[in-house]
Amino acid sequence: MSSPPISNHATLSTSPNRTTPLIVRFYQGDYSLRGQKLEQIWSYGEDALEYRHDYIQYLFPLPERSFANPDAPLIDRTTFEAFRSDETLREQLRKSFKTMLYFYGFELTTDAKTGDLQIARHKNWTRSMKNWVVPMDHNHLRISRMLRSLRVLGLESESRLLHKALRDVCAESKTISKRSAMYWDRSALRPLYLAPQDEVDTGKAPGFLYEFEGVRTGDTKGKGALEKGKKKFEGKKEEDGNKVKETKTNDMDHGADSEKSAGPGSAIENRKSPE
Fold first, then answer.
1. pTM as predicted
2. Which of 70, 114, 126, 210 has the most CB atoms less than 10 A away?
C-alpha cells in the first residue's frame, strides 16, 4: 500500500501557527520517514543503503520533483535559506554525506597540516566500489542527486571534493559510462538554476536560485540570468523544438530520478531501480 502524499510543509506541534519545511523538520529530528528518524538512516547497513529507495530523496532533496518518488519534499526558498544560515543543519547534512560516502568506498577527512577537508578511499574501497563502479547503475543517479543537493544546501566544498574524487575514478577505471560522467559534471558545475537534466534554461527554475546566482555576478535580482536563459531557450526551441522535447524527456533520470527498474538482463541502461 502506498503512503499518502506528503506536503512540502508540515505544522510544528510546538507552534501551530507556524509552518516549517518538512526537510528542515526531518533534519532537526522532528519528522520520521516510515518510522525511521535521520539518525537511524545513518546507521543503515550496506544492504539497506543499496536496496531501500525511499530515503535518498530525504537525505539529499532537490528543487526538482522526483519522478520515482513524487511525494518527496522539495527544496523551497525557506529550506534553502534555513540550511544556508544554520550550521547545525549543514552539519547534519554533512553526516548524511559521510554515510553515503562510506557506502561508496570514500571517507571525508581533514588534512592534518592545512585543516582542509579532503576525500580519501577507505580500507574497504575494493569491495565498496563494486556497488557503483560499473557502466550504468542506479547509484549513479544517487550520486548526481548528492552533488546537486549539497551545492544547493550550502555544502559546495563537499560537492567539489566528491566531483574531483569521481573524476579520478572515471579516469582510472574507464568503466563508468560517459553519460553518467556527463551528468555528474552538470550536477557539480552548472549554475544552480539549471538542473542537470535540462539542455537549456527554460526560465522556470525557482526564483531563489536565479537570485542566488545573480548575487554571485552582481545581478542581485537574478534578472540577467533569467532573461538570458529564456532567450537561449526560445532560440533553441525554434531551431529544433522536437529535439528539445525529446532530450528533456530522456535525460530526466540524473536530476529528477525518473529511472524505472527493469528485469534481469534488460538492455535498458541505468534501470536497476528508481531513485
1. 0.80
2. 210
